[in-house]
Design brief:
Elements lengths: L2 E4 L5 H12 L3 E6 L6 H4 L6 E5 L5 H15 L4 E4 L5 E2 L7 H29 L2 E6 L12 H21 L4 E8 L12 E2 L11 H11 L7 H13 L6 E4 L1 H20 L1 H5 L6
Helix pairs in contact: 1-7, 3-4, 4-5
């Protein structure tokens, strides 16, 4: 029976994924900063569910959660790093303290979880690490530079990680959703307190876009959870898993644009080498 440890289960992808895992009669370590928000998920699953308090920015809570999970179920088969939040603000507008807090959760918290589960996964020579990123980990929009920076960091780390742990029987998948009806663009979204008029048409427009689209995104978190499970169960799971039509279209456009620019500047690029 597979054991999943999922961070950030109070809402969104984490909540739906935890529910889907338990519905399949697998074990689930369901975590949130406030355990009261996840009691309904674990209700009726006394044997297969373990609800824990977990703030991924607290090293003691990270170590304790992994220790309790392994003591209860023997091993962690799948780690899903879902905890995180969005941030809006032009690069010049953002507050340094807020940006550092964003990285502490979205990137360094994810790193802490990975480092905590890897000893057990290496010992068993199996496991799957699923890092929830975003389409913003492939391209950035005005006003989302810092959020994208955290997700680009997740992508780069994950790419190296998969090459390090793949020979040990451990798999890595980066999930890149487009717009989904979670709390991301609503309650969970943070924005810079300081605004500059010169960015009203760029970063400012992005702020307004979020307030107008929240709750009307095309993506279904429950279907996303099933897609993630399908990828984890695959004989050859993807390294990058785009979720939602908008994500597929935007990523494909970005790849095409990058290829066109690379081709246009190939001669100049090649000319930077020493002569043959």
């Amino acid at each position: 029976m597979a054991t999943w440890l999922i961070t950030g289960c109070s809402t969104g992808f984490g909540r739906e994924l935890a529910s889907a895992v338990l519905a399949r009669n697998w074990n689930a370590v369901v975590t949130a900063r406030d355990p009261a928000t996840i009691q309904d998920i674990v209700a009726g699953h006394d044997v297969s569910a373990l609800a824990l308090r977990l703030d991924v920015t607290d090293p003691k809570q990270v170590a304790s959660a992994v220790k309790e999970a392994e003591a209860r179920f023997g091993a962690i088969d799948v780690l899903v790093n879902n905890a995180g939040y969005g941030y809006r603000g032009a690069v010049e507008e953002a507050d340094e303290t807020e940006v550092r807090e964003l990285f502490e959760t979205n990137f360094f918290g994810l790193v802490s979880m990975i480092q905590a589960v890897l000893p057990g996964m290496r010992a068993h020579r199996r496991g799957h690490i699923v890092n929830i990123s975003s389409v913003a980990g492939r391209m950035a929009q005005p006003g989302s530079g810092y959020y994208s920076a955290t997700k680009f960091a997740v992508g780069g780390l994950s790419d190296a990680l998969r090459k390090e742990v793949g020979p040990l029987g451990i798999r890595v998948t980066v999930v890149e959703p487009g717009g989904f009806r979670t709390d991301f663009a609503g309650r969970s979204l943070r924005q810079s307190k300081h605004t500059i008029d010169d960015y009203a048409a760029t970063a400012g427009a992005r702020r307004k876009e979020n307030s107008s689209t929240d709750g009307r995104q095309p993506g279904d978190p429950a279907r996303a959870a099933q897609a993630i499970i399908r990828a984890v169960q695959a004989d050859k799971p993807p390294f990058r898993l785009a979720l939602g039509r908008s994500a597929v279209q935007r990523i494909r456009t970005e790849i095409d644009t990058q290829r066109q620019e690379l081709d246009a500047w190939e001669e100049t690029a090649n000319g930077a080498d020493y002569p043959a």
